[in-house]
Design goal:
This protein is an alpha/beta fold. Helix content is 29%, strand content 21%. Bound molecules: adenosine-5'-triphosphate (ATP) and magnesium ion (MG). It holds the Pfam family ABC_tran.
Length: 278
């Protein structure tokens, strides 16, 4: 995505934003509340039409005018509310609207087999695929939503705050799942406020501040402190303190409070889902 601009009335949600993701790469998109993260991924998902800028896919310019266009290109989104049907079982949720058929009836066996194959590949811990998703835990529901996005083999998967509502063990499960997605060669865009999650799974971190780029960092050579400084504007995109008066004068609305969770101290490691047995 190059030079992306988007305004809602007088609100400039995005100004001249650059963003990219490669195959087999996890890119974290971070920034304060209202920084434009959701708007940027919604432009990519065909929800919002940008006012300015271009999008290239495999080096070719593309126009993503609708969610259907995004789906055709292989861009899948897992929205924060997951949008699952609580009363339906796991299989029905995965195949909703794209059910497999054999003749005039639903191919229940085929759908169930492919559901298990997919969940196994993701190393997902779902007790049964024939129970309503209402009875699954938060992490398991997140897994089902991610598995559903994988039907149709997308190239890019967008995860908007996948761990925001999850506990320690469930967060570890979802982070492991993100690693599986990278191994499978998907490009993953991860929106998160949790620096520990970002540093644990991302390869690259793109920071947005007040609707503009404010730095791109490789996870191997960045600390949680630097990221937080970029989010809050204590440093600009080059890692330097901005000159007085050069920064945008506009301040984020006061009602918005930062919800940045700092990196815990101690050695960094991938949390192991197997640690937390439920
Ligand atoms: N549909 C919309 N109509 C009007 N304004 C909008 C709309 N969507 C977003 N905005 C505005 O655009 C700006 C960026 O919002 P966006 O949702 O992209 O932020 P965000 O980085 O995802 O924040 P958060 O971390 O709180 O989810 C905000 O000022 C927001 O009020
Ligand atoms: Mg958002």
């Amino acid at each position: 995505m190059r030079g992306i601009g988007k305004h809602f009335g007088a609100v400039k949600a995005l100004t001249d934003v650059e963003f990219s993701v490669n195959e087999g790469e996890v890119v974290a998109l971070i920034g304060d509340n209202g920084a434009g993260k959701s708007t940027l991924v919604k432009v990519l998902a065909g929800v919002h039409a940008p006012d300015a800028g271009t999008i290239e896919f495999d080096g070719e310019p593309v126009e993503i005018a609708s969610p259907a266009d995004a789906q055709d290109l292989g861009i899948a989104t897992v929205f924060q509310d997951l949008a699952l049907c609580d009363n339906l079982d796991v299989v029905a949720n995965l195949w909703l609207g794209r059910e497999l058929r054999s003749g005039s009836t639903l191919d229940e066996v085929g759908m169930e087999e492919r559901t298990w194959t997919l969940l196994r590949e993701l190393a997902a811990k779902i007790p049964s695929v024939r129970i309503p998703v209402a009875s699954l835990s938060g992490g398991q529901r997140q897994t089902v939503a991610i598995a559903r996005s994988l039907i149709g083999e997308p190239r890019i998967i967008i995860l908007d705050e996948p761990t925001a509502a999850l506990g320690v063990a469930q967060t570890a499960e979802v982070l492991n799942l993100i690693e599986r997605l990278r191994e499978r060669g998907h490009g993953v865009i991860l929106i998160s406020h949790n620096m520990a999650d970002v540093l644990a799974v991302a390869d690259r971190v793109v920071v947005l501040r007040l609707g503009r780029n404010n730095g791109v960092y490789n996870v191997v050579d960045v600390t949680s402190e630097t990221l937080i400084a970029a989010i809050t504007g204590a440093v600009d995109g080059t890692g330097k303190r901005p000159e007085a008066g050069k920064q945008r004068t506009e301040e984020p609305p006061e009602s918005r409070e930062a919800k940045i969770i700092p990196m815990p101290t101690g050695p960094r490691r991938m949390p192991d889902a197997a640690d937390g047995d439920e």
